[in-house]
Amino acid sequence: MSDEYQIEIPASFMALYVLPGRQKPSLPRDELAARYELCEDMAQLLTETARNMEFSLGLAESDVLTRCLLGLRVEPEVVSEAESVWVVRRLAELLGWSDASLQP
What we know:
By secondary structure, the protein is an all-alpha fold. Helices cover about 55% and strands about 0% of the residues.
């Protein structure tokens, strides 16, 4: 079995690629896994940056998340708008922060 099938893609990420009225994602499994890995890696990498922003700049958690979201959207060819929201929601989850203020 290849490595790509050993990656468990969360339903929350899979939902980004399931069109309304469909059951299967619009991307092939290997592409979907690659997109997921990129987004998960970005969320993991942003944890330290987000903590530093919170403490060094004295920002509220919601402001840190908003800034991260805006930063991810600067380069739309890296992550899509929907993926950027997923990354920041995952970041909030990793940090134990609320993502209630995030607008998709």
